[in-house]
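User: quick one, sequence for these tokens?
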């Protein structure tokens, strides 16, 4: 796969799951359009594709900037 910016280094898309403390409102979940959100008891799961380490770091920063506590993050099987 060629990067969207036209670079020659291929991108590797990985799937991740993020477990966030508490119920996240639908409005706040919209801050993560690349992830699906699913409420579970006492947590909200976010999951979806992450294109690279920079994208992953950006997602974690966005969670933090919005005051959301990521309890667990894991890479899902391909």
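Assistant:
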């Amino acid at each position: 796969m060629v990067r969207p910016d036209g670079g020659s280094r291929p991108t590797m898309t990985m799937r991740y799951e993020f477990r966030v403390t508490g119920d996240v409102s639908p409005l706040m979940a919209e801050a993560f359009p690349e992830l699906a959100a699913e409420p579970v008891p006492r947590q909200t799961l976010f999951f979806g594709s992450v294109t690279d380490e920079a994208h992953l770091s950006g997602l974690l920063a966005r969670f933090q900037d919005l005051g959301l506590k990521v309890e667990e993050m894991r890479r899902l099987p391909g």
